[in-house]
Amino acid sequence: MQLKGKTALITGASSGIGEATARHLAKAGAHVVLAARRKERLARLAKRIQDETDVQVLTVATDVTKREQMEALVRQAEEELGSVDILVNNAGVMLLSFLEKDKVDEWEQMVDVNIKGVLFGLHAVLPGMLKRRDGHIINISSVAGHEVFPSSSVYSATKYAVRALSMGMEKELARSGVRVTNISPGAVATELTHHITDTDVTDRFAKQSLTPLESEDIARSIVYAVTQPENVNVNEVIVRPTNRRS
Ligand SMILES: NC(=O)c1ccc[n+]([C@@H]2O[C@H](COP(=O)([O-])OP(=O)(O)OC[C@H]3O[C@@H](n4cnc5c(N)ncnc54)[C@H](OP(=O)(O)O)[C@@H]3O)[C@@H](O)[C@H]2O)c1
Questions:
Q1: Cys-Cys link to 1, which of 29, 75, 231, 233 (CB 3.0-4.6 A)?
Q2: What is the tens place of the pLDDT at every residue in 190-202?
Q3: Up-side HSE of residue 43: CA atoms within 13 Å toward CB?
């Protein structure tokens, strides 16, 4: 119960890594604010957390690409639970495609969710964290934010951006009481790949023999980062499956 009395806000909490992270943070004692667009999935998760723990749970249907919705989300969390002590900037989309397919709407969606979503999250929580001289921001990048492979150019560009933002935040906020952790997962079994429309990419995924990580594996690394002593700032965590090829 190391996080007793803290409040954690998780974006993209309706599935995958966000859902597992919310459950693990709640089990560590934090009140949780669950944000994503699919209300019914958030309600189902809220019930599960309430059955498993006695922390407070708030669900707020939120589109992270809308600045005013992110501001309203944090305002509601602060009003109902007092403060947002931990922000997990997790919402993301991975619409892999080859550049020659010219899927410009999907490029725009990735930029909006993966980059603007993280910036709007930062914008909404930072004033409160600076005032309290206490807070922790977790940004979910990817191993695709460390290397680029065919079909990942735009997705990787957004995840490199997340990592660059994490590095900047960590340096600028180091003495402010606000800690920053960039988490870069390798392949994790979630719904992330379900939205890919480029069939050349989905065919390649179908032939892949890799056994991916589970969302819980990433959730545990997030709990690790946010439960360190106050003088410890875990800035970068890379978590890959053991059986990858390179
Ligand atoms: N799975 C992997 O292999 C892997 C590897 C490296 C990094 N990551 C990163 O991990 C993060 C979580 O992905 P996941 O693997 O858990 O995939 P996922 O199960 O598809 O979860 C993505 C989450 O993002 C939310 N989301 C998407 N667009 C949104 C929007 N406009 N506003 C609010 N929420 C939005 C979705 O909720 P709604 O649809 O309900 O809004 C969902 O909860 C992403 O940033 C992803 O890039 C994943």
A1: 29
A2: 999 999 999 999 9
A3: 4
